[in-house]
Amino acid sequence: MSKSQNSFIKNQKAKKKLLKKKEKEERRKERQENNNKGGELSDMMAYVDEFGNILSEPPEPKPEKKEDKKD
Fold first, then answer.
1. Are 49 and 59 in contact (CB under 8 A)?
2. Mapping DSSP to helix (H, G, I), strand (E, B) and coil, where does residue 54 land?
3. In a 3-state reduction of DSSP, which class is residue 48?
4. Distance (Å, whole) CA 29 – CA 34
5. pTM for the full predicted model
């Protein structure tokens, strides 16, 4: 009697192990599909304006002042 019961328990453990392995594989695939790492470079860039504020877009260039030098 104990031999058949041991076989049954072994089979149940094997089934549980396979089921856990499949679930783990599915979770792994889902994480890979929804991975946001390594996005575009422009999404990762940050710019700093003259006041030290962090911006997501580059600041507009200021027109340069022309200085007249008279010697």
1. yes
2. strand
3. strand
4. 9
5. 0.46
Alpha carbon distance 7, 13 (integer Å): 10
In 3D, which of 37, 40, 35, 57 has the Cα closest to residue 48? 57
CA distance 37 to 21: 25
Torsion of CA 30, 33, 39, 40, to 10 degrees: -160
HSE of 35, CA atoms in CB hemisphere, 13 A: 8
| Interval 8-19: pLDDT, tens | 999 999 999 999
Q: Where are the beta strands (DSSP E) in the chain?
A: 47-48, 54-55
| Residue found by looking up tokens 């979770």 in the block | 27
